Amino acid sequence: MNIDRRNLVTLVTLAAFGFESHAQNTRGIGRIVVPFAPGGAREYPARAIYQEMAQRLDEHWIIESHQGAGGAIGTVFVSKSEPDGKTLLMAASSHFITAALGAKPSYDPIKEFTPVANIGMQSYVLMMSTSLPAKTLSEFIAHVKKHPGELNYSSAGIGSSTHLAMAYFCKAMGIDMTHVPYKGTQEAANDVLAARAHAVIVPTAGAGVYLQDPRIKALGITSKKRSSLHPEIPCISETGPKDFAFESWFGLLAPAATPKATVERLNNAINGAIREEAVSKRLLSQGIEPSHLSSEEFKTLFMADHDLMTKLVKDVGLLNT
Question: N- or C-end of the chain: fewer Cβ atoms within 10 A?
Answer without folding.
Answer: N
